[in-house]
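Hi V.,

You were right to ask for the full record rather than a summary. Here it is.
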Amino acid sequence: MSYPSQNPNAPRFDLQQTYEADPNAFHSTAYPSTAASSAYIPNPTARYGVPGAPSGASRLGPAGGGGVGRNPSSGNVLRRPTVRGAQRGTVRDADANPYQASQQQGPQRALTRGKTLTRPDRFVAPAPLIAPAGLGAAGKQGGKVQTKLVNGVPTLVTREPWWQPWSLFVEVVTFWAPRPVLRHFGMTDPIKQRAWKEKVALCEISAFLMGIIGFITMGLNRTLCPNSGHNSASYFQRLGTEPGYVGIEGWNMQVSSKTPSSIASIGSSFGGSDVTGMFDRNAMSFPGCKDFGDKPWATVGLCTSESEANATSCAMGAPTESYLSTLGLRNTTRQVGYNWNQVTNLTNYFVLDGNVLNLTPYINAYPNPRKDDVVDAAIRTLLGNSTGGSRDGTRIFHNTDELKATTHCLAQRYYAGHIDKITPGCFVANLFLYVSLVLIMGIVLARFFMAVVFSWYLADRMVAKPKNLRRKVVSPAVLPEGANIDVNNTTGAAPWTESHLKRQQTQRLKKGGGAGISSSSDFNAPLGPDGMISMAAIGAELFTVCLVTCYSEGYDGIKTTLDSISGTTYSDARKLLFVVCDGMITGSGEKMSTPDMVVSMIERDPRFGDPQPMSYIAIADGSKAHNQAMVYAGHYTQVAGHRTPIVVVVKCGTPAEASEAKPGNRGKRDSQMILMNFLGHVTYNDRMSPLDYDLFRKTQSLMGVTPDFFECCLMVDADTMCYPDSLGHLVRVMQNDNLIMGVCGETRIANKRQSWVTMIQVFEYFISHHQAKAFESVFGGVTCLPGCFSMYRIKARKEDDGDWFPVLVSPTITAEYSQSVVTTLHQKNLLLLGEDRFLTTILLRTFPNRKMMFCPQARCRTVVPDTFRVLLSQRRRWINSTVHNLMELVLVRNLCGTFCFSMQFVTFVDLIGTVVLPIAICLTYALIINSIIQPPSSFGDAIPLILLVGILGLPAVLIVLATLKFVYVGWMLIYLVALPIWNCVLPLYAFSKFDDFSWGETRKVSGEAKGADDHGAVTGANAASAVPLRRWEDWEKSRLRKVRREEKRKGEFERQFGSRQVYSRSSLSTFADSETASSYGGPDEDRWGAQIGAYNEDATSLNLPPPIGLYSVEELEDDDDTLNQHDLVNVLDGGWDD
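Predicted structure:
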């Protein structure tokens, strides 16, 4: 396999593109030495095995995993498995034979039953969120990506299959808007047509869900349980439960001392007995019987008996309200209720449509069956049944139209009460109501109590002082399993480690031995012979890179952010400011461009001179895939007492972009990927772009250690002010638990009283942290780390501290987060609007057994929108991003918990709650108004009010218990007044803008046209192949050769023109091509010279203070303290005593 430097004109593709084009190409056990394999592509599958395997698991890929070595005879790159765990406390066993291990791996594996009851063994590797159809299961997310030659350049072309379920659904629900009609109205771009159709489909789904919620809230109970007392069990008083009651026409009457003895005796002996037959009722009382003529069951006298068939009057008068009052009978407004056993035991009783009928007057008048009377036959059939439930005549009387027509007449004449059992419809409605109460209140109370527990007990433990700093751990200089290393490398150290040691030793000797590496102790060496290092050499403060992304912010905002990070109590020797300026941008109303502002704030290191544009592969498609950036390095000295190393990356664009409005601009995600790709290439010793190599050299010179020593990455927006102790708290959280892969602090509002728009946001920020994120932190699953102030773990030590596990720079994460080919509206909302939330999502999907946490002790302040227009634009992006990220998280089956007691279920509830916010707030106000007009009369009626009070009132209690800051109660009242804005106006506007992928009013640029910030646009053929990619060793060899060439040319220049002449590269414009020019190296050796910065970071004539690097630690008995900053200053000034 020829090396990349020998064939610079060969087409090159990035990792994701090559994998998409041919996934099977990565599954070979060796790389053949052919011309087609001229560009080395690392194996992502062999690097970490199954993508997304649980943390700590073995990650041997199909080829056996491991790094790469070179065949001594052919020079071809060979892969071999790394050997880990041969001896506890070491990284690799030097005596192990990796090739023999590889051969014995497969045949010795036995077929055994897995431990399927433990969650790690039930792990299901998630499919990539954004991947082409060529990747199999992942293809459901997007279209098929093919590589085609466009103008001679290999370019990715996306073709969407017509049979995808989502595509078919979108076309069906938007049938009323065919594409020709859209073209007629000016929407000619097929991509925009699809986005608009998908937006409409999502809005229709949202409207459907809101309709369901509205029906469940307002219509379900009325449909299943109509507003009738017969459907409520509390409406009845059962027969015989209490003495002193009688039943008249089904109503329960309470007797008194004035009640006649004939009636009172019945009530006292068997409360609730029907005495309707004692009262006179005429035909006018039964309008339902007027159509049945002389039918006996419709005309029989209700007071007659068998002995007095011709009686014309009853013992009592008509049961009017006034007459009953004179008899001392009081209506309890409750009806007489019967159960089925009582109906069966009572003579001449049966049930019709739930009504209990007393047929005693009819049976007494007509004791014998009547011929040719179907009603009489049905009555006598029912009365002859004696088993429970057999007296129900509803089915018999509804079999024929003739019998069905008589039901109203019979119910009016013989009604004695009602079955007191709730109907099935009411039972289902009440069941749903109580289940909703339990689930919603359960989630609300769980969030509340878990947030309180987190605030009282867990938060302080996370930021405790780290212990056992004397323990031996794997050195940051050791590459993780699967990295590209030489086969003879037994410690797994990076190739630049030995060079770094030699450089430090040289600097120490030149400066007199006091400022470099102490020869008497190896505690400050990057690694020991076994690949381990004392944790005390690093200290209690991990090496942290602080990423600040800038776009169009003002001078004061950027300076405030840099001042706050530099001014933290965290040691300057352990933090690096990494500022990325996203293009040559001038903010609206600004006189200077953003890059000029940032560069003017730093003290530039004179060793590096003026930077030159360096190429890298950008997160874009087409011609935008090739971008260039300049790297300024130096120190930030704006804060008294601090001299913080800083690197400023200015994305300036290629020469072809010079005339464009925003040259170099590729978006915030591209700015993040510059750092992530750089650290990923360092972690795995992968091929670097010229920008990566330039960053490597300058970072190493500023920090005194190679970039692989960085373990944490703080991401901060350029309008955020960090509190002095915030950085230290976040790093302590990381250091105390290696399973934590991300942590965010509390974001507070800096301009809370600027306008009513800022005032309504204060409590919203508070509750989103101290309730939502605090609850999620108990389970280690914070679903959104805000981009303005969050820290991620670059790589983590495994449980035994014997190896590294890449997290933020894992190939799975970088491949998905750097995807530039997106086809659906869902993908664009994930990548183009909510980059920060999407990064959290893919981390949780890939490593569900690791933790995302919230640290309330780490605080920052940020400037929020102060006008409603800007707030509308910001929340449009946030809401849409939230919806689409929750849609992905709800599919992750590996989160904590099971079924309803799981983070997956809580995520599902959050998703539904977000989608139905507009209807929810409308129903809330309707509930409040209805409760005022008609107060609830039962517990069931009060359940919605209980839910409302719990949801709105518990946050106030949380304020008191968690923070004791009563001022937030006032901010809560302001928030509640603005609820219609939060829950109705903003969501409806966001849903209507599902197909808007711009940043709107949030970040304005001088002279920018509307919609000009769509980074998902494709422009021209893919230009990524123009970026050279080489491993660090090859860049370093070219640099050393360039240095030697320059030294030789300088010597030849001095020999020809004398030493008094000043040598410069410009003076050699004609000299270099003359016959007397040096032929050192030849044309092949000078090929990469233009891609390497023309500076010498090892220059000693400038007399610059050296970086601290690693600490030198003396062995102390039973003492875990490390050297403090004052001791280090004394060491640097005077050297070691020995």
